[in-house]
């Protein structure tokens, strides 16, 4: 019985890691409607048309430059990042993690409301076979997840989104209980590795209340795109804010992952 419970717990943990890694990319793919109004429509039509043409050109260029290898061949492995305890996450667990995020966003309440904008279609598209690969591991109280995905054509700069949502409160139900989480989002000033577009490093501190208890944890997410492939490295601390040492390890993994894709045939 104990082994069965342990196995179920491990599977649930791996699904959460998959969700965490996917979320790092999905947040970058979220729709950002801040500052838009009907009064601005006429004045921005030409800009929107120009932006659409530029995006199409960029997508075509990225598609032509994408590596030939499958995503599970492009993602970083334990041999290439031995300090993170990485193991491949099965495709069905990735799909389960993405489904969990999709279900969560249907019942979630976010304040300010503008911070809840979320492109669920882009998220679910990553569940298609061969679209995303994840390697995940644990080191002490920290969980790491490295993800690569072919769904990166619409990856915008996340900096504006984080600047517009430095603090937010999230409420949702879990096992019949209301969970309230207060998050503080901070952009970390880091240099993007060579060849990376739409780079962002985000430090998130969370305080969650559940059944009268307060729990503190932290996330550090680094995202970007290289050769048309989206890359995300997520470090999650279960015992408080993410330390500088862990941030450095996550950034090192991101740099290695980018180099692997950049140098791929």
TrEMBL record:
The lineage of its organism: Bacteria, Bacillati, Actinomycetota, Actinomycetes, Mycobacteriales. This is DUF5642 domain-containing protein. Residues 44-61 have a biased composition (Low complexity). It comes from Dietzia cinnamea. Residues 1-31 form the signal peptide. Keywords: Signal. Residues 36-67 are annotated as: Disordered.
């Amino acid at each position: 019985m104990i082994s069965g419970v342990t196995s179920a717990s491990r599977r649930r943990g791996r699904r959460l890691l998959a969700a965490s890694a996917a979320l790092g990319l999905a947040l970058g793919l979220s729709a950002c409607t801040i500052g838009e109004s009907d009064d601005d429509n006429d004045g921005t039509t030409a800009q929107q048309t120009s932006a659409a043409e530029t995006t199409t050109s960029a997508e075509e260029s990225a598609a032509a430059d994408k590596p030939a290898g499958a995503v599970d061949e492009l993602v970083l492995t334990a041999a290439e990042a031995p300090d993170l305890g990485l193991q491949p996450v099965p495709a069905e667990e990735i799909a389960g993690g993405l489904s969990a995020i999709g279900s969560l966003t249907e019942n979630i309440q976010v304040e300010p409301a503008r911070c809840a904008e979320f492109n669920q279609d882009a998220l679910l598209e990553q569940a298609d076979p061969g679209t995303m690969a994840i390697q995940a591991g644990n080191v002490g109280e920290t969980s790491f997840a490295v993800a690569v995905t072919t769904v990166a054509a619409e990856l915008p700069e996340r900096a504006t989104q984080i600047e517009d949502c430095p603090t937010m409160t999230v409420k949702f139900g879990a096992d019949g209980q209301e969970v309230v989480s207060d998050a503080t989002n901070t952009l970390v000033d880091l240099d993007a590795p060579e060849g990376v577009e739409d780079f962002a490093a985000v430090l998130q501190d969370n305080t969650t209340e559940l059944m009268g208890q307060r729990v503190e944890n932290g996330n550090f997410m680094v995202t970007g795109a290289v050769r048309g492939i989206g890359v995300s490295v997520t470090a999650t601390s279960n015992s408080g804010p993410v330390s500088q040492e862990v941030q450095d390890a996550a950034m090192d993994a991101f740099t290695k992952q980018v180099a692997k894709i950049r140098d791929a045939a």
